[in-house]
Specification:
20 strands, alpha+beta, Immunoglobulin-like, about 35% helix
């Protein structure tokens, strides 16, 4: 939502025509951007391209979700004017679907809009003798660079100049990009001192597109050849250090004789040198994007946030990454809180308890060699690659603690099972089931967790079919009815494969 807060301030200074171009009423009304700000900023819009016809079904699903969210917000809105307006917009979108409107247009409009237009310190200065009014932020990022960048890896970024039609004709305008550290980002009024990194292919020409009326510079095949790091404080790691790309040029406006310098910086980026650092770098970016304040000093973030904000971020990240409409539920939320706070017996509300950056991704979980984020990201990656449909259909219970597990299964018939994410290793899913104990009673057992490697060899559906002594998915769904769509032609019996029961 931080992007929209900044953009909503910037568009106050833009001409009506420019705002209308950013938020075309027929495709992407500004009301949608406003009321769905947080959800929009958590989606993967960069994956879409108008020319990719095969993406239409995915785009249609996102548009369906947008309409549903709009309708929900409208019904809950106490302001009757807003409520009627949002309902009208949602009806227009439904009609667009019914008349086979190209729904990729909606996603293209989103990408073109300020989802990616974000500037911490875009500066443009004109003398009083030049009789023009210019917004403070006239240079914006249309396509942000990746926020985790590995050295030697190629990437692209696009910068847009909102006053392109006012650029004086003649010599091409060349934009230059350079990488700056946090201290330099705080002192943009002065010329950056030491060069903290070497960028390859760091210049681009500002080009005006007459059909779209946009003026952009696209940096292609850019890469960071080397990076100079600042002295680290205390236990700070290299994946916590933030940089940014600074874009600058001198530009002449029609009617003004003197060229003027304009500059802006990108969203913060973390630079890594090895793929193993990607997970921790992503944690830094997630914390920054989710909890940074508007108009902050670059790149200050709070050290602690309420759990309710942390959970909202985790849920948004999970659903966006897995590309599902199935949210984490209240049971998942409570177990995640118990996990991060190390309070397995706490039954009250965690909402207002403060969670720290250290608890999120610096301190390892008790008795484990990994942090909370490393564990959560492993589950998210497993679900994205192997369990998306199972999760989206509500077949996976997900995050659940041992106490809650025993509570809900203790009175169920033998053979009842549920699917839960492993809390003892990264990226695992296990089957918890009720079985007969040696004394004639019941006990709850867990199969050794299946990892990505296991599921690449044999799918979860086939593994469930293999195990004959699990018969009903909790609470009482016959497994062959629920999972038959996931069975392949390769049917085996439990005796054919070894499924290890994990005793705890």
């Amino acid at each position: 939502m931080a992007q929209w807060i900044h953009m909503s301030q910037m568009i106050q200074c833009l001409p009506h025509e420019t705002v209308n171009n950013l938020y075309p009423p027929s495709a992407f009304p500004i009301e949608v951007r406003h009321f769905l700000a947080e959800w929009i900023e958590n989606q993967r819009w960069d994956d879409f391209a108008l020319e990719k016809v095969e993406q239409e079904s995915q785009a249609r699903a996102l548009l369906d979700q947008t309409i549903s969210l709009l309708q929900s917000i409208a019904q809950e809105n106490a302001n009757v004017v807003d409520r009627m307006k949002l309902m009208q917009i949602s009806r227009n979108m439904v009609r667009g679907l019914c008349h086979s409107v190209n729904v990729n247009l909606f996603n293209a409009s989103l990408t073109k809009s300020n989802v990616n237009y974000f500037s911490f310190n875009a500066e443009i200065m004109f003398p009083h003798s030049c009789n023009y009014f210019f917004p403070v932020s006239s240079l914006v990022v249309e396509k942000q660079p990746p926020q985790v960048i590995k050295t030697q890896s190629k990437f692209s970024t696009t910068v847009r100049y909102l006053l392109g039609e006012k650029v004086a004709p003649g010599k091409p305008v060349v934009l230059k990009a350079q990488i700056i550290n946090e201290l330099q980002a705080r002192n943009l009024g002065s010329v950056p001192g030491d060069n903290v990194g070497e960028l390859i292919n760091n210049t681009a020409i500002l080009e005006h597109n007459t059909s779209s009326k946009s003026t952009c510079a696209t940096f292609r095949n850019m890469s960071i050849k080397k990076i100079k790091r600042a002295d680290r404080k205390g236990s700070e790691s290299v994946t916590e250090e933030k940089f940014a790309l600074l874009f600058s040029t001198e530009i002449t406006i029609t009617g003004c004789d003197t060229p003027y310098r304009i500059q802006m910086i990108s969203l913060p980026v973390v630079v890594i040198v090895h793929g193993s650092q990607d997970n921790n770098a992503l944690a830094t970016i997630i914390w920054d994007c989710a909890f940074s304040e508007p108009d902050r000093v670059p790149f200050v973030v709070p050290e602690r946030v309420p759990w309710r904000m942390m959970y909202s971020t985790l849920n948004s990240k999970f659903t966006a990454e897995v590309q599902t409409n199935h949210n984490l539920d209240q049971y998942n939320q409570h177990f995640l809180a118990q996990k991060i706070f190390d309070k397995p017996d706490f039954a009250d509300d965690f909402s207002n308890i403060m969670v720290s950056w250290a608890q999120f991704n610096k301190e390892v979980l008790p008795g484990r060699p990994f942090t909370f984020w490393q564990w959560f990201e492993g589950v998210m990656d497993l679900t994205k690659k192997h369990l998306k449909t199972y999760w989206s259909q509500g077949l996976i219970f997900g995050f659940i603690g041992k106490q809650h597990l025993h509570l809900i299964l203790k009175d169920r018939p033998n053979g009842t099972f549920l699917l839960r994410f492993s809390d003892s290793e990264i990226g695992g899913i296990t089957i918890a089931y009720v079985s007969a104990s040696e004394n004639g009673g019941q006990k709850i057992q867990n199969i050794q967790p299946f990892t990505k490697r296991d599921l690449e060899i044999r799918s979860l559906g086939d593994r469930i079919r293999d195990i004959s002594h699990i018969t009903h998915l909790y609470p009482e769904y016959p497994k062959h009815e629920v999972f038959k769509g996931f069975y392949s032609g390769n049917g085996l019996h439990a005796q054919s494969l070894l499924y290890v029961v994990k005793f705890k």
